[in-house]
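Example for tutorial group B:
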């Protein structure tokens, strides 16, 4: 979203604001170009993901954000972080130019940090605080818009993530009474996503040349079926509404899964990206809500949270897969020692930095020598 904020003379910079509390963390990033804020981006952390120290949350947010964005020439932070020099070097290498990290104490730069921080505090209250009357208004508007018999107090949302043709994962988030319920989030590794099914809902069959393309419909069908088969076995809780990140094809796939476990009476709605149209099973045309409609804003917030959760899970899964693949190349390192190394040092960089003594304590002296020899030869 664009912000009508301009401060001449401040050039290109990314400004971070932060709010950390017992429920998690909220981060606001103002992207400034030519002294004008052209985009405002929200990030969130879960209480179990990161330590509650503000500096640690902020540093992790920086690393997450710049995995997907190119840094401005200057990054303005509200407080000091421990590895500022190392992160500056990393960002400079990625950007192909010098990137500086600053923590202003006064002036226009400090005013911008304080504005981003106030936005982060507002975002934190919106995401984590108790149910408000506005949430109930949004739920009632959603009930009317979708023609639901009761207030959709419990909404479960699914999002699939496939990056650069790698494995597909899926995430489900839960919203109760307008508040995200993080303790009930679920992650799924999609087992059959790399084989395109012969029958795709509401679409013509793909050609044989497409067999290596992950099938999002089959992935959605699999994950929804796995989720609600378990719900049937456990006797609930059942959602008042299922939100699908996608269009009519994904909604049809979800209904196929629901019917296979005897829950075809549940209501599912798809929300398509960009157009932000709502797709339901029994309507030929999508539902169009205004940009300011509280029901649409609620669904967007839930969908965006599911997407964030799915992408975060996918990034972690891909990182662990890459680490396993790299360590598999080290002579004498089998699955047991590989797991021990990753548990002890957390990342491939951590294994590379470890001393011979540290490695020996985990996998023994012979395997430690093999690890050191392998990385020294690269």
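The residue assignment follows.
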């Amino acid at each position: 979203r664009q912000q009508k904020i301009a401060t001449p003379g401040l050039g290109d910079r990314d400004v971070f604001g932060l709010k950390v509390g017992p429920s998690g963390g909220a981060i606001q990033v103002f992207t400034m170009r030519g002294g004008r804020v052209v985009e405002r981006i929200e990030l969130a952390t879960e209480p179990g993901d990161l330590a509650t120290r503000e500096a640690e949350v902020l540093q992790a947010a920086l690393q997450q954000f710049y995995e997907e964005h190119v840094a401005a020439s200057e990054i303005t932070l509200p407080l000091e972080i421990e590895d500022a020099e190392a992160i500056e070097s990393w960002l400079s290498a990625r950007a192909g130019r010098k990137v500086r990290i600053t923590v202003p104490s006064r002036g226009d730069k400090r005013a911008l940090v304080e504005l981003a921080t106030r936005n982060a505090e507002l975002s934190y209250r919106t995401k984590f605080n108790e149910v408000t009357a506005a949430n109930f208004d949004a739920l009632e508007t959603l009930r009317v818009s979708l023609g639901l018999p009761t207030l959709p107090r419990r909404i479960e949302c699914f999002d699939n993530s496939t990056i650069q043709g790698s494995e597909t994962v899926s995430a489900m988030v839960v919203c109760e009474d307008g508040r995200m319920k993080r303790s009930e989030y679920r992650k799924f590794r999609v087992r059959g996503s790399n084989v395109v099914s012969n029958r795709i809902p509401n679409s013509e069959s793909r050609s044989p040349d497409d067999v290596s393309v992950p099938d999002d419909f089959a992935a959605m069908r699999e994950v929804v079926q796995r989720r609600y088969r378990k719900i049937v076995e456990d006797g609930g809780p059942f959602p008042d509404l299922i939100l699908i990140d996608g269009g009519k094809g994904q909604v049809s796939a979800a209904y196929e899964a629901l019917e296979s476990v005897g829950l075809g009476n549940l209501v599912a709605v798809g929300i398509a990206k960009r157009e932000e149209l709502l797709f339901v099973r029994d309507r030929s045309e999508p539902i169009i809500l205004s940009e300011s409609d509280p029901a649409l804003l609620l669904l967007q917030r839930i969908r965006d949270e599911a997407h964030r959760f799915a992408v975060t899970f996918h990034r972690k899964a891909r990182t662990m897969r890459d680490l396993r693949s790299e360590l598999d190349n080290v002579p004498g390192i089998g699955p047991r020692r590989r797991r021990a190394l990753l548990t002890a040092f957390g990342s491939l960089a951590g294994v590379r930095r470890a001393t011979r003594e540290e490695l020996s304590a985990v996998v023994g002296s012979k395997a430690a020598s093999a690890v050191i020899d392998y990385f020294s030869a690269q």
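The two ends are 44 Å apart (CA to CA). Compare this with the pattern of hydrophobic and polar residues in the output above.
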